[in-house]
Amino acid sequence: MGKTIKKIALCTAFVLILASILIVSSMLATPDSAHSFNSAAANAILDEPDNSIDVLFLGDSGTYAAVSPMEMYKNYGITSYVCASNAQYLSMSEMFLKQAFEKQKPKIVILEAYSVQRKMRFNVSLTSRVENLFSVFKFHNRWKKIGDYPSFDFLKSTITDDNKGYRYFTASVPVLNPNNYDVPTDSTESVPAANEKVFASILEYCRENGAELILFNVPNMRWWNYEKHNGISELAEKYGVTYVDMNIMDDDVGIDWSKETIDMGDHLNYSGAVKTSVYIGKYLKTNYYLDDHRKDGNYSQWNEALERYLYSVT
């Protein structure tokens, strides 16, 4: 009996010590209004001034290639940020959402619907939740920079992203064999049950924090189809969420698939992103009350960033 109690005590002590180490290291490794050295530009939202972002985008690489917040700001004065990453699973979207709300109070959260359809692997979902609990796992590569600094200054490093999460591509690889992705059909590709559960959690979090959630799709010729559209439409109707699919309104967006994609229809280049961003900005300005910050002195850093952005893309 005594040996059993001793083993339990040792195990408990080990768990407590490990948890303490993880908590302390997470506090040190997490940027202090900051951007991690190893992660996507999505994390740089932590370096934005508090409560300065009105619209938050979540999604995968198609999102960060198609949505340019600076184009939206240039045309409509809307402040937005793209928290997108490669092959972003919905569990990761939820993680980025909650991270953004640590410093921001966006009025609108726009979730790319392809992430809603992408089937989550259990290990990816578990990893995302562990990283959210102990951020040292998310920012672990920052420790590699310790040799570059004389002290712990590396832990306070900040980097502001002038593109606000957008990634600039200029390559042009045309669609050679256009498919019928936008031809209506009654067939439906339903959202996986596990994904719907996370989606419901994201929606609840947005509503609890005063943000409206919108589902949308950027133009995609390679992987999107009407079956997926129908599945997302059913989900949106079930939960009372607005759904905007730019794939079925191609004439309004005006993507030229012969030259405005970098990889035969999967990702847009800069020219395509301008069209997509202007369309989204116009849609938001028409349907929601969002302040125009272009003449607001509190947003002078956005005007400065816009100048640098325009210089880099011209």
- Helix/strand/pairing class, anyone? alpha/beta
Number of strands: 5
Q: Determine the N-to-C terminus distance.
A: 76 Å
Morphology call = globular
* Gyration radius from CA atoms, angstroms: 21 Å
Listing every helix as H and every strand as E from the N terminus to the C terminus, the arrangement reads HEHHEHEHHHEHEHHH
Instruction: Note the beta-strand portion.
Output: 5-15%
Main β-sheet, spatial strand arrangement: 2-1-3-4-5
Q: What proportion of the residues is helical, as a percent range? A: 40-55%
How would a textbook summarize the main sheet? 5 strands, parallel
Q: What features would you describe in this structure?
A:
By secondary structure, the chain is α/β, with parallel strands linked by helices. The chain is 43% helix and 8% strand. The protein has a 5-stranded parallel β-sheet, with helices on both faces. Strand 4 (212-217), helix 8 and strand 5 form a beta-alpha-beta unit. Helix 3 packs across helix 10 (270-287), helix 4 runs parallel beside helix 6 and helix 4 packs parallel to helix 7. The protein is globular, with a radius of gyration of 21 Å. Residues 26-38 and 125-157 have low confidence and may be disordered.
